[in-house]
């Protein structure tokens, strides 16, 4: 009897969850399709029929989880700067818990990513921009943003910076803790130049604290 669409989606999610769990506990080279199938309670052929390749499965597991963190940041009760900081914290916690994510991303193909997965990546980046833009718009509504600043261009520059810093982690140029502090520092410095009042003071305080942490590290 053919399984229902709901059942297929549930089974697909179980496979993604199994891959995520393994990326929290196992060395990357031990995260095989057979091990993922066993953890998900399905057969290897079922896993291959659903995802085709190990790389495609792992990439979707990573990107879809990032997308979940974006939704959490957008739905959070915080607003303005606090929403942006919540997002940074959610992403930092995710990358800390999934210890093999950077290694997995390094192993991903660059030219033949399936279109469905590519779209998840695009949504993840667009979602990041939406979080930043929402926080900036809220700061403007609360009188914490300089009058001349346009939220969308600022959000795009923040998104580019955030993605670049995470790429440095993926390529091994910086450690996870270094990239968390460096990302927060750079965004705080950027926002300190365009905010005012309490928001500006908070950005300066955050930048000062992360600057102190980074002073004891080497980023290159």
Question: Keyphrases for this structure?
Answer:
220 residues, 10 helices
**Low-confidence regions:** none
Q: State the major sheet.
A: none
Q: Give the overall silhouette.
A: elongated
Residue share in helix: over 70%
Q: What is the number of beta strands?
A: 0
Kindly report the average pLDDT value: 86
Helical region count? 10
The run of helices and strands is HHHHHHHHHH
Secondary-structure class: mainly alpha
Q: Termini, distance in Å?
A: 57 Å
Rg over CA atoms: 19 Å
Write the topology of this structure:
Layout: H1 5-25, H2 33-40, H3 44-51, H4 54-74, H5 81-97, H6 101-106, H7 115-141, H8 151-170, H9 176-192, H10 197-214
Helix pairs in contact: 1-2, 1-4, 2-3, 4-5, 4-7, 5-7, 5-9, 7-8, 8-9, 9-10
Describe this structure in a few short sentences.
This protein has ten helices and no strands. With 220 residues, the chain is an all-alpha fold.
Provide structural commentary.
This protein is mostly helical and 220 residues long. The mean pLDDT is 86. It is built from ten helices and no strands. Helix content is 74%, strand content 0%.
